[in-house]
Backbone:
């Protein structure tokens, strides 16, 4: 959907109003009044301070009223108002005000440079900087800071090198740029060259190492500072405490605690709060954090809010409430932390009650309440609160735009962006990135281009956050040309940029280029590894995904839960139980095996590999969600264990878990593969009558399959005609499959005709119809189907089976001649045929789709892929060892009979997972009871 957004220029009414309020003497002068004409008076200091305070909390309209009411303005008043506009994301309004006094003074220009820099508008900042008649070191520092803030470290360094003179702030600004961009080698080189250092220099370096997750080096830098005789100060203590929190070394924490005591910071509330932050970093240390908090002799509002927030985030909301009730001040930060915690745990009504009790809530409190509503999907309530706000800042607008986009109301997010711009404000970086996300959600390419133009107008089109969001948006809209263009033009490419670009390539089916980009990344994080491993897994290149995972471990990058889940899926799809067990071991070592997502993936993997360990994982789980129950019900269905699936469902009901549509698909599938017709009918009825769930196509397909497999082919066909929705290919395919089982030519012909019109390129439909004809000896009809396939350009998918021996996967196709031991395999098969025929096995030649003599038919059947895999398993594994085989297509009736006889004659347990389900062969019988 394209929105006719027309971006207007900021209104000039305020500038005109300002000029009317100038003194009469100034008003008579045609040119703007120079800044030096304004008197310097201490009488305006109170009003200037008031303007600055109102600007700090985002109350711009009130600040302007104070400014306009002043009988005269000195340069401090002008700069206070200009600074208020800049700090609230309105640099254009600030620029208009500055132009009214002929640009102001040196301080005015510096404020504008900083304002444009914070807004991401580097080009405008540089224009102001270049237009300044006089520039001091502070102005140069502001321009360097602008480049640093917006990620252009190369231009920052170029300007830094061109500075006529530098102070320690200049060096620290450049040092900050390197540290923020995680270029710690360059930062360290610059640090070593500094002619003078202060505690800020040391703090920046420590913070840089923390940001780049080199926490050991951050601690080493702090120790070096200490050895050089520099006494620690509050900022670097706070920074090094952040590093220590990530080292997880309690000995270091105790030593820094002693140092803090010796340095006289024991009663420093800021340092104490930083220590508290270390203790609250992990849920496992919350009790220690509480003990430290209770021992603090001095606490401020941030100490209380930190403890409340930590307990809330750690899931201990009741303890957080207790701490809040003990807070003697109950300051706005404390109340805001409490309402945020209540909202995060779903107690949104309690959060609102607390919000309403805040006397004079500030913008942060309003924003926190709006965010709480958005987190709880209460968009209308957030909107009502937003409309009632007495004043808003850029975070308010950004929070609403993000909330709309994240709650599926992307159109409203874009309308709000338009309203923001019409109010004379340019959007913040957060608002822009959320707007690009909204465009991605609805694939609104044209609107995305308009927002892109607005980003250019705002001068932040080269900002890394904006560029990353643009890459994602254009990738979702399938415009890979724009994706390349943005990525290639980025002046600074961080890891997030590379990750976004790789994701874009993967989404556009460009896996090879994505892999090359991954290989050439200057640095990688766990998201990089997740993206490329997921890409190979989704492309059915599981082996390559596993190899990349091994490389990841070799580079000592620890996997996250999504990576383990992806690889467990790979192991399940390949039927590689040993691989799955290895990933399980990794999960146990990392303490991730008990996590809900990983545990669910483990259950699914073990079921797909035919392992009973799935039940062990299920039984050991302390927490289960709907995905857990659905996974185990579906797993039992895949193994044809209908009664067990029903038992689990009953257990699920007793646990109070509500089933969803997926639950009933699993149940109906289980009933279908176990011949439980009456039970299946009851479940189909129950989903709508008992749970208010509307049956979907998947449920109707299961019912058709259930009736058809049980022999009621006519009833299955009538069921389709009685459906309230249009049947799809899956439903007709289920009917055709039933006709194949029960050799119903007429209904099979009608079902096939429907399928040929819906999906003319699906070879399986033609093969099933051919099977029906060949089973009745209707060779002319078989020939017609074969001719139709040729005319449609349809090729039958070859049957493929594979078996894992040790750490190697061996695959076979029907009639395979390529395997290195194929002659031994053929010899084993011939021996088996002799033994099995003596035991009563008779090849079922109706599964041969060619009108050839009986001997040729038998020969054709002998070399089906699953028989080759079974023979190889018998050939290379010790006697008595179970054999497990995977197959891409449904096992044919003759192979099913053949393997039953093999399990009886050889006394082997043989498990086969075909395209539909598992077959467990034991002593001449199959778990499916010949019902599949």
Residues:
């Amino acid at each position: 959907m394209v929105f006719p957004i027309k971006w207007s220029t900021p209104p000039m009414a305020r500038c005109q109003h300002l000029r009317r309020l100038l003194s009469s003497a100034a008003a008579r002068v045609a040119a703007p009044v120079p800044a030096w004409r304004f008197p310097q008076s201490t009488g305006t200091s109170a009003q200037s301070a008031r303007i600055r305070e109102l600007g700090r909390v985002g109350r711009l309209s009130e600040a302007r009223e104070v400014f306009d009411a002043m009988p005269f303005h000195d340069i401090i008043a002008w700069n206070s108002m200009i600074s208020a506009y800049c700090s609230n994301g309105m640099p254009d309004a600030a620029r208009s005000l500055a132009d009214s006094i002929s640009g102001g003074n040196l301080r005015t220009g510096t404020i504008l440079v900083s304002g444009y820099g914070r807004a991401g508008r580097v080009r405008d900042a540089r224009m102001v900087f270049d237009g300044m008649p006089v520039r001091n070191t502070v102005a140069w520092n502001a321009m360097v800071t602008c480049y640093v803030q917006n990620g252009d470290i190369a231009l920052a360094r170029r300007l830094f090198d061109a500075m006529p003179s530098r102070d320690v702030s200049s060096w620290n600004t450049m040092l900050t740029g390197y540290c923020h961009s995680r270029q710690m080698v360059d930062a360290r080189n610059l640090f070593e060259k500094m002619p003078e250092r202060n505690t800020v220099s040391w703090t920046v370096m420590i913070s840089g190492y923390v940001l780049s997750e080199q926490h050991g080096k951050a601690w080493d830098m702090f120790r070096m500072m200490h050895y050089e005789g520099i006494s620690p100060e509050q900022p670097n203590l706070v920074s090094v405490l952040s590093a220590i929190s990530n080292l997880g070394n309690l000995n270091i924490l105790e030593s820094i605690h002693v140092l803090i005591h010796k340095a006289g910071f024991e009663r420093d509330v800021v340092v104490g709060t930083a220590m508290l932050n270390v203790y609250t970093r992990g849920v496992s240390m919350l009790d220690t954090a509480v003990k430290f908090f209770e021992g603090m002799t001095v606490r401020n509002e941030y100490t209380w809010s930190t403890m409340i927030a930590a307990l809330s985030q750690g899931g201990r909301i009741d303890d957080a409430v207790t701490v809040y009730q003990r807070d003697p001040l109950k300051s706005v930060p404390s109340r805001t932390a409490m309402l945020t915690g209540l909202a995060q745990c779903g107690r949104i009504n309690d959060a609102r009650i607390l919000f309403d009790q805040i006397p004079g809530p500030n913008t942060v409190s309003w924003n926190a309440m709006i965010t709480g509503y958005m987190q709880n999907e209460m968009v209308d309530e957030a909107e009502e609160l937003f409309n009632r706000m007495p004043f808003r800042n850029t975070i308010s607008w950004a929070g609403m735009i993000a909330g709309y986009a994240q709650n599926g109301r992307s159109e409203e997010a874009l309308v709000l962006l338009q309203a923001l711009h019409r109010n004379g404000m340019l959007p913040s970086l957060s608002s822009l990135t959320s707007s690009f996300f909204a465009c991605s959600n609805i694939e609104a390419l044209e609107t995305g281009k308009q927002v892109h133009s607005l980003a250019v107008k705002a001068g932040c089109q080269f900002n890394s956050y904006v560029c990353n969001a643009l890459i994602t948006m254009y990738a979702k809209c399938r415009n890979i040309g724009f994706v390349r263009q943005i990525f290639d033009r980025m002046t600074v490419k961080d890891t997030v940029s590379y990750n976004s670009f790789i994701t874009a390539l993967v989404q556009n089916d460009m896996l090879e280029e994505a892999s090359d980009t991954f290989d050439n990344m200057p640095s990688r994080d766990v998201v990089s590894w997740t993206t490329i491993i997921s890409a190979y897994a989704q492309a059915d290149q599981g082996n390559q995904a596993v190899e990349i995972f091994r490389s990841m471990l070799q580079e000592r990058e620890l996997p996250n839960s999504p990576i383990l889940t992806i690889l467990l899926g790979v192991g399940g799809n390949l039927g590689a139980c040993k691989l799955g067990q290895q990933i399980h071991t990794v999960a146990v070592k990392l303490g991730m095996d008990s996590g809900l997502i990983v545990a669910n993936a483990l259950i699914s993997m073990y079921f797909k590999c035919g392992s009973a360990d799935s039940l062990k994982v299920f039984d050991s789980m302390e927490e289960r969600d709907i995905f857990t129950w659905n996974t185990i019900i579906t797993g039992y269905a895949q193994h044809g264990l209908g009664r067990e699936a029903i038992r689990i469902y009953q257990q699920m009901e007793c646990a109070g878990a509500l089933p969803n549509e997926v639950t009933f698909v699993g149940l109906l599938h289980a009933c279908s593969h176990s011949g439980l017709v009456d039970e299946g009918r009851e479940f189909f009825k129950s989903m709508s009558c008992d749970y208010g769930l509307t049956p979907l196509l998947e449920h109707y397909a299961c019912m058709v399959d259930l009736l058809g497999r049980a022999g009621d082919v006519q009833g299955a066909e009538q069921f389709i005609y009685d459906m309230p929705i249009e049947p799809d290919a899956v439903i007709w395919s289920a009917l055709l499959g039933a006709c194949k089982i029960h050799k119903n030519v007429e209904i099979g012909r009608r079902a096939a005709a429907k399928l040929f019109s819906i999906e003319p390129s699906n070879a399986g439909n033609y093969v099933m119809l051919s099977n029906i004809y060949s089973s009745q000896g209707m060779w002319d009809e078989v020939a017609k189907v074969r001719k139709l396939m040729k005319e449609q350009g349809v090729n039958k998918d070859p049957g493929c089976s594979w078996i894992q021996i040790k750490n190697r996967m061996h695959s076979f196709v029907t009639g395979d001649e390529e395997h290195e031991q194929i002659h031994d395999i053929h010899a084993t098969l011939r021996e088996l045929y002799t033994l099995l025929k003596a035991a009563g096995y008779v090849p079922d030649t109706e599964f041969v789709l060619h009108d050839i003599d009986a001997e040729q038919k038998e020969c054709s059947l002998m070399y089906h892929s699953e028989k080759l895999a079974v023979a190889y398993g018998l050939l290379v594994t010790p006697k008595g060892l179970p054999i497990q085989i995977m197959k891409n297509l449904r096992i044919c009736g003759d192979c099913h009979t053949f393997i039953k006889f093999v399990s009886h004659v050889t006394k082997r347990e043989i498990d086969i997972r075909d395209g539909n389900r598992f077959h467990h062969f034991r002593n001449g019988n199959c778990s499916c009871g010949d019902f599949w």
About this structure: The two ends are 47 Å apart (CA to CA). Residues 688 and 695 are 7 Å apart (CA to CA). Confidence is low (pLDDT under 50) at residues 1-42. Strands lie at 800-805, 808-813, 883-887, 910-913, 918-922, 925-926.
